[in-house]
Design goal:
elongated, alpha+beta, disordered N terminus, 12 strands, 56% helix, two-stranded antiparallel sheet
Length: 414
Amino acid sequence: MSDAQCAGRSGLLALSGKSLSAAPVLLLLVCLCGLPLVSAPFPVQAAAAGDQEAKLQQLRQRIQSVRQELAGMLGEQNAQQQALEKTEKEIGSVTAELRRLEQQAGEARDRIIQLKQQRDSQQQSLQAMRSALALELRAAYLTGRQERIKLLLNQEDPAFLGRMLVYHGYFSRARALRIEDMRTALARLDDIEQALLAQQVEIDRLQTVQRDKSTRLADEQEKRRTILAGLQVGMKEKTSELAVLEKDEQRLQQLVQSLQQALIDIPAASGQYKSLRELKGKLRWPVEGKIVRHYGSTQSAGKISSRGVQIASVDGADVHAIARGRVVFADWLRGFGLLLIIDHGGGYMSLYGHNSSLYKEVGESVDGAEVIAAVGSSGGLSRAGLYLELRKNGRPFDPGPWFKGRPVPLQAAR
C-alpha cells in the first residue's frame, strides 16, 4: 500500500466524527497500512528444522557412501568374513528387537498393576455406595412406601408440611444421583476389566514373539560359532594375524578420516555439544568391567600397539555414551564387529567396538550416560568386552586420564 493511500485512510478516520482512543486508532492505522505488528517466528523455526533435517539426510548419504567405499577396500574380504558380518548383524538386530519387546512387556506389566489398583479403588468406592444406598432404602422402607401421600394427609401445619416435602424431594434426588453414580462406577469397572484382559492378551503375544526371537537368536549364535572356528584355523600363524590386524587398523583409520571430512562439510548446530575437553578427568567409563588391554599395549607378538582400551564385561551389559554427541557411524566393521562412533564436536570422537547389538542409528543425538549398545564379542572376539577409543581430529589418544578412576568392577555392581 502506498503512503498516499495510507494517509488518505488516516484522514478518513480523522473525519469520521467517532471518539476513538489513541491505541485503537494506532492499531487500525497499522492494519490499514499493511504493516505487521509482530514478526511470526514459526516460518523461521520451520525453515530451521527443515534445514537440520536436510543436513541430517545429507550426512546419512555421505556415511552410506563411506560404507560402500569400505566394503570394496583392499578387496580381501573372503566368504567367511562376509558370513560372519551377516550373522553378527542378524544377532545384533534380533538382540535389539528382544530388548524392545522386553520394554513393551514391562510397560504392559506396569499397566496391569495400575489397572488392578484402579479396579481395587473402584470396587471399594462401589461397595461404599452400595452400603450407603442400602441404609437409605432401609430407612425409606421403614417409613412406608407412600411417603408423600402420608405427608399430605397427616393434617400437620402447612408450613411444616411444605418443608417436609422439600426435604423429601432432596432425599429422592440424592438417592437417584447415588444410583446413577453406581451405574457409572459399574461401567468404569467393566472398562477396567476389559483393559486388563487386553493387556494380558498383549503380554501373551509378546512372550510368544520373544520365544520365537530367542530361538532365532540361538540359531544365529550357533552359526557364528561355526564361522569363528573356521576363521581361527586360518589364523594360527602369527604373520597372518599381524597382516589381518594391520588391515583392520587401516580400515578404521580410513573410516574415521572419511567421517571427519563429512563432519567438516556437514557440521552440527552451533553450541549443540559441550566441549569434551571441559570434561577431562570427569568422564565415567561406558561399561562395568575390567580393563584387560590398555592403550599402547602390544599385541600379535609385540608388533602392533593398541590404539584404545579393551574392557572385559558381561555379554549383553549396557554400554553408555561417555558424553553428549551425535551418532555418525553404526554398522559392522571387520576387526571391530558392530561398531558405534559418536561425534562430540570440536574434533572429538568416541568409538565403541565389539558390541552384540546397537541401539542407535546414524544422525541420532545421545546424552551422556545414555544406553547406546550392548556388550558383546562381535568381530571375532572369544570373550565379551567393549573396545573403546577416543580420537581428536582423527588421531587416537590415551583415554585413561579423561576418565574418573577405573571402570566399576562387575562384582561391586551386583
